[in-house]
Amino acid sequence: MVHQFHIPVLGLGFSIDTPLKVARYGISSVVSIVDDELTERMRKYHSQLNQLAYHPIDKKEDDYRTKRITAYLNLLQDLVDKQFETLKKQDFVAGSDICRYFELLPEGSVIKHGYELMMEYPEGARKKIFQDRLRQRMKKGNIDVNIMAKVDKLNFAKDGEYLGDENTDALAAFRAFAQSKLNASVVLSAGMNPRLYSYIEKFEDFYPNQKGEFDKRIILKVSDFRSALIQAKFLAKKGLWVSEFRIESGLNCGGHAFATDGFLLGPILEDFKQNRISMRSELEDLYRKTLIQKEIAIGQLPQQKITVQGGIGTAQENEFLLKYYNLDATGWGSPFLLVPEVTNVDEQTLHQLSEAKQEDYYLSNSSPLGVLFNNFKYSSAEQQRLDRIAAGKPGSPCTKKYLCSNTEFTKEPICTASSKYQKMKIKQLAFQDLTQEAYQDAFDRITEKVCLCEGLCASTYIKTNMLKPKESKAVAICPGPNLAYFNKVYSLDEMVKHIYGGINLLDKVQRPHVFVNELNLYIDYLQAEVQFYFKNINDKKKKYLYGFKSQLEKGISYYKDLFNELSNPNVLKELLASESRLLSTNI
Fold it and tell me: How far apart are alpha carbons 445 and 168 in whole angstroms?
């Protein structure tokens, strides 16, 4: 790894081709492979852009979903390889891509130091030898992929026959990655799917060679130590090694948010720091035993990295997290939405994001998955949702059906954001003898759902001029709340220099420490839960809320000790203000 950060997955379309923009500079990024329609259209777009033959893969073909995703991933690899080889052949002259490669590296990088020394050398044979050695040390960034493990729709033939477990959405997407030419990682997120995890066992690329190296690796995106260990043990017993635990803040992140039971990022990282060696030892024992049973010989055991992402905003925070918790890297996601050369954000949305305030980002129930979703108040998808309600036609057409899971009114699952579902659900309210206030509250909760399948791709189609005539232009976007502190459009160079401390994009911006910011989000969440259940709270819910509050109090106690030890009075002052808010929250 040449860089100390990666770019996580950003919705369906926002990072769909990010590797083509950053991988040649050694920066790893993550592509969503949920939507095979999106990957197929992007394959056509980039094939034509690079004067390559494009042969469409029709939905009538057997296993078309897998074939489409594999073809796109292979194209990404081919194009990145070509970019990288072209870059390496360039002369070391100011403004060239090869110089940019080295200039983007962190200051502590050995090869960056070598590059700076080389540039001071006088012209001649020794300088050319030095340059060739630098070229040999260069590495591409990874083209990693993301699969939300539990988004695993069952698929049926036209005659209603079930197509089998291996053709569910998640397994077909995983097979596409497994059959691709990528030497990269699959990031498994959104919880454990035993069917998917067991399926991985079938693919040889996930087993190590004698040196403990893999052609394809597994990354688990996790929100706490306990769930990480449970999932990793399940995989180790099948001879599958977790190459990285990617810890993500429960609420201070983009996209879907999984509010833990009050467990804060600092104490979670402390858990990993204290138990990292014992966890590895436990996993190694299980792993070795299974490999022996499978008659797979291994000499050197594989690496196991631990990284963190979610709400990091400054170089100081980045450096602190890496050093204090002994982490291998960090993830920077939402700030890259303001970097047009890296992500696919259309001009209108880009302008809105650059001017947005803290209150414009909010935690919503917009996702049809029934999971909290970070939302942006002024997105065109949100405006479209409100316009449809005002016109008496709430809900969206459901064309892609990736998030169909509700069977309340139908035999075949439908999406809760669809007009079909919302019409039936609203009709049901008429028979429930509700007060006007209760009716409106129920109506709002039904109609809050928004189509993500279309909305999270729209910006990409707008930016690439691929939007079809009757296709929705409404853009759904899901930045983390930390984006509120970034208020300009930036270049890749500016954002990378900000991450490494070369410049400060947040100079003079009043912003709480990353830990305090997350704590405040959890307190907001708790207060909203208390308010929601205020009238009809039961003993079970009350016990949960008390436990949640107690866990936050323990987290604050941990932070007080930590920042006393670090002699940081500013963060301690922020903590006391947050603690006062928490203590005033009555359950």
Answer: 29
How many other CB atoms are there within 10 angstroms of residue 568's CB atom? 15
Side chain identity, residue 542: K
Q: How far is CA 135 from CA 86, 124, 128, 341, in A?
A: 12, 17, 11, 25
Which residues sit opposite 244 in a β-bridge?
219, 305
Residue 212, phi then psi, degrees to nearest 5: 75, 25
* DSSP symbol at 125: H
DSSP bridge partners of 145: 31, 186
End-to-end CA distance of the chain: 48
Per the structure block, which two tokens stand in for 386? 């409100």
The DSSP element (H or E) to which 44 belongs, if any, is helix 36-49
Q: Is the pLDDT of residue 252 over 80?
A: yes
Q: How far is CA 175 from CA 143, 202, 564, in A?
A: 16, 10, 50
Task: Determine whether 144 is exposed, middle or buried from the number of CB atoms within 10 Å of its CB (0-12, 13-18, 19+).
Answer: buried
Find out whether 417 and 403 touch, Cβ atoms under 8 Å.
yes
Give the C-alpha distances (Å, rounded to integers) separating 288 from 204, 230, 245. Answer: 16, 17, 19
- Tell me which residue of 192, 301, 175 sits closest to 241, measured CA to CA: 301
CA distance linking residue 400 with residue 557, whole number of Å: 47
- Write the pLDDT tens digit of every residue in 438-495: 899 889 999 999 988 888 999 999 999 999 988 889 999 999 999 999 999 999 999 9
Asked if residue 552 lies in contact with residue 264, where contact means CB atoms within 8 angstroms, the answer is yes
CA dihedral sign, ordered 373, 377, 378, 381: positive
| Residue 424: HSE in the Cβ half-sphere, 13 Å Cα cutoff | 12
DSSP summary character for residue 301:
P
> How far, in Å, CA of 132 to CA of 111, rounded?
12
Cβ(528)–Cβ(513) under 8 Å? no
Q: Which residues of 517-543 are buried (b: 16+ CB within 10 A; e: fewer)?
A: bbbbbbbebbbebbeeeeeeeeeeeee
Q: Which of 317, 318, 291, 294 is nearest to 302 (CA)?
A: 291
CA–CA separation, 318 and 305 (whole Å):
16
The token duo for 36 is 């095979």
Write the DSSP assignment of 162-213 as a string of letters. B--GGGSHHHHHHHHHHHSS--EEEEEESS--HHHHHHGGG-GGGS--TTS-
Mean pLDDT rounded to a whole number for the chain:
93
